[in-house]
Design goal:
Length: 413
């Protein structure tokens, strides 16, 4: 078992970890109860967000907090019965969003984000995955000229400090770029660096196919069956028990429910999100993803149609889906674009795994030799999967990490 590993979780992060370990000669078993990419990796906005150097802070403006507390917004919704269990992590989230502490999060998060395009290309080049990575960026639209000017100033600072690129469009420029938009806006910021993925699930599956083609084992099984096996680890799969010297927990939102059995209970929490696909009328097109700031949701052109992705819902992890935000957003979306029928029979729902300090947990699992963490990527699991895979694989093999892993260490909780 000297150079062997079990990776629990076949989302973008787990698949990327498994592939990087396999490339370094590990015998790797990648285990999930679902097929690759069918968790949170399936239903996101499909953006590899090179511009996302500023993680999402907890609102500290009282007017914004009151708006959210009313529980009628399109971008945020919550279940009242979930709030007691979320009180502690959300309070910590608020604390870490204080401007000076938030600056630390920005510095650590931006170091990861800066690598995302190169690390995806390193996995995708020479494969069918490259066709899924569209270099078209995405646009944020602004109805209020004052908000547009403020956002433009922030974009200029991001360009100066973090090397991200953008183009500013006035109302006429936006209409020319997206001629089937049904509304007028003061302007838009077109973030030009990001890749727009035409099928996020297919991208994860493509990386998983590389893993299998290189000799990796892809298994169905229950991660919660994990137990110690001497100096290593054992988990039950549909093909029987699997043992390995090392273990990686990459189960997204469910990760902490497993690690707490082994003495590590970080204050993670989930942000639920929904999506639905729509056809466009006639010959209408959407050329790139758009997020209308006034409306608070993303519309992205995908293989399956135009995907509407909702904002954030706070609920207990086992609560049934409540696509309230989708019902609120759909009529607004129809005012933005000439949408026709829904494509999907039911709304899709996934859970983003979040930490209070807005940084993922990457590194050794405290108190458990041979066990490692790779979770807590919040909105950026798709973006940061390959980066996390490389960083963790380098740590596990004793290579010099290409990034300083200290800010993401599990011991900080």
């Amino acid at each position: 078992m000297a150079a062997s590993a079990i990776v629990l979780g076949a989302g973008m992060v787990g698949v990327s970890v498994a592939l990087h370990l396999r490339r370094r000669g590990f015998a790797v078993a990648l285990l999930d109860r679902q097929a690759p990419g069918e968790g949170a990796s399936f239903g996101n906005g499909g953006l590899i967000q090179r511009e996302a150097v500023l993680p999402h802070p907890f609102p500290r403006n009282l007017a914004e907090i009151r708006r959210i507390a009313g529980n009628r917004a399109t971008d945020v919704h919550y279940h009242t019965n979930a709030l007691p269990g979320l009180a502690s992590p959300l309070l910590r989230y608020w604390w870490h969003s204080e401007p000076r502490r938030y600056l630390h999060a920005v510095q650590a998060f931006s170091a990861l984000i800066a690598t995302c395009l190169d690390e995806h290309r390193a996995l995708a080049e020479g494969t069918e995955a490259m066709a899924l990575l569209r270099p078209i960026g995405w646009m944020r639209l602004y109805a209020d000229p004052a908000l547009f000017e403020a956002a433009l100033a922030q974009a200029q600072r991001a360009q100066s400090e973090f090397g991200v690129n953008f183009t500013a469009l006035d109302g006429a420029g936006l209409s020319a770029a997206e001629p089937h938009l049904l509304v007028q806006r003061a302007g838009a910021i077109h973030w030009t660096d990001p890749y727009s993925v035409s099928d996020p699930n297919a991208l994860t599956v493509s990386y998983a196919d590389q893993f299998v083609a290189s000799g990796g084992r892809l298994l169905r099984g229950d991660a919660m069956s994990l137990q110690r096996a001497g100096a290593g680890w054992r988990v039950q799969s549909e093909e029987g028990p699997v043992e390995a010297a090392q273990l990686v927990v990459a189960l997204g939102e469910a990760s902490a429910r497993l690690t707490q059995r082994f003495g590590y209970a970080p204050p993670t929490f989930g942000k639920r999100g929904y999506h639905m696909h729509y056809r466009l009328r006639g010959n209408a097109t959407l050329n790139r993803p758009i997020l209308d700031t006034q409306s608070g949701f993303l519309l992205a052109p995908m293989r399956a149609g135009v995907r509407l992705t909702t904002g954030v819902e706070f609920a207990r992890h086992d609560a049934p889906p409540t696509p309230v935000q989708l019902e609120r957003a759909e009529p607004v979306a129809r005012e933005l674009l000439p949408l026709e029928d829904r494509v999907d029979a039911q709304p899709w729902m996934g859970i983003r795994p979040c930490t209070p300090d807005m940084l993922p947990i990457i590194g050794p699992l405290p108190g458990q030799a041979g066990a490692w963490c790779a979770f807590g990527h919040a909105h950026q699991g798709l973006t940061l999967g390959p980066t996390t895979g490389r960083l963790l694989a380098e740590m596990m093999t004793g290579e010099a990490p290409f990034l300083d892993p200290a800010p993401y260490r599990a011991e900080r909780w």
